[in-house]
Amino acid sequence: GTPVAHVLARVQNADTEPRGEILQLYVDPDHWGRSYGRTLLAVGTRALHRSGCDTAELWVLDGNNRAIDLYERAGWQLDGRREVHVVFGIDAPEIAMSTTLTGPDVVRDNRAFWDDQAAWYATKADAAWSRTPRWGIFGIDDADVSIFPDVADLDVVELGCGTGYVSGWALATGARSAVGIDNSPKQLATAQAMAAKHERSLPFVHGDAHRLPFADRSFDVAINEYGAAIWCDPHIWIPEAARVLRPGGLLWFLGNSVQLMLCMAEFWDEPAGTALRRPLRGLGHMTWLDTADSEFHVSHGEMISILTRSGFAVEALHELYAPEGATSDYGFVGAEWGSQWPVEEVWVARRR
């Protein structure tokens, strides 16, 4: 395709006191009004913050009120500096704007991300509620892997329930009770609509798995597929899960495999490659340049350490590959990659 927008950023004084600068931000006028400028500005500032910059500046033509408004809405402020730059022999009076670069607010940023994604997931919710369990990006039939836990006559909590289909599956397979908790009000609205449509007595709670609003020893099973497993800090949410589980209770969670995370690009929807793109050592809090969400992925050794410190005994680690002929709605991994290396992993641990 033809590029219609770009951003160019640089780090000044990299060896002393790094300061970022947005050198260029351009969107073809035929493509104005599509949020390209806002998105690329966010990409540039995230890249600068990753590079060690705590502050950043940019220069904008005096009188370019459309651009100034964009920057101000993104938190930039006019700082009083003015200069006349000569561009192609023409005097161009410019004014400076500055901003402070801050790290992500995990709960806030993930709520905004999932509220934004909720409409797309709502289109898939009814199909998920209507079928028997299928797992992960490639919809692996549980009949082929037998990983869904036996929840008959047990109390289940889903940590990061999204549209609530796993809670629905739990009730359909005999759970005594189930409750879902999620950070996104819009995802919860879909979950509530699905529970009503499928006639399930299923409460949903707006909350955060880092701070569960449940009493100690309230549940027999804590489960999630792409919920707290990757969107919450395991050093916090796993001890919380231990707190609300009864002795002997089961913790079951599915997320991206460590192998996939090591091969992921810097952009969320760019396909994973076959080469390692980041070190395993220090793997943990992860962000992408093109989205504002935060994820958490740790090595297997670190996960075992977290689980054992939190009072769990590991029972199983299942690795999921793409089945033959599988397709995906997600751009960051394809079936060819997923047929050779595990795309997802499922941890199963028992509360001591």
Features:
single chain; 352 residues; alpha/beta; Aminopeptidase; Rossmann fold; 2 domains; seven-stranded mixed sheet; 11 helices; 31% helix; elongated
Topology:
Blueprint: E1 5-12, E2 19-27, H1 36-50, E3 55-61, H2 65-73, E4 77-87, E5 90-100, H3 106-130, E6 134-135, E7 140-141, H4 142-145, E8 155-159, H5 165-172, E9 177-182, H6 185-197, E10 204-206, E11 219-225, H7 228-231, H8 234-244, E12 245-256, H9 258-263, E13 285-287, E14 294-296, H10 300-309, E15 312-320, H11 335-338, E16 344-351
Parallel strand pairs: 2-3, 8-9, 8-11, 9-10, 11-12
Antiparallel strand pairs: 1-2, 3-5, 4-5, 6-7, 12-16, 13-14, 15-16
Count of DSSP H/I helices: 11
> Which CATH class of the largest domain is shown?
Alpha Beta
As a percent range, the share of strand residues is: 25-35%
Overall helicity: 25-40%
Q: What's the CATH topology name of the largest domain?
A: Rossmann fold
Average pLDDT: 95
User: For the terminal residues, how far apart are their CA atoms?
Assistant: 56 Å
Give the biggest sheet. Answer: 7 strands, mixed
Low-confidence stretches: none
| Integer-rounded radius of gyration | 23 Å
Number of strands: 16
The largest sheet has its strands arranged as 10-9-8-11-12-16-15
Summed up:
Helix content is 31%, strand content 30%. It has 352 residues and is of the alpha/beta class. The protein folds into two domains: 5-100, Gcn5-related N-acetyltransferase (GNAT) (Aminopeptidase, 3-Layer(aba) Sandwich), CATH 3.40.630.30; 106-351, 3-Layer(aba) Sandwich (Rossmann fold), CATH 3.40.50.
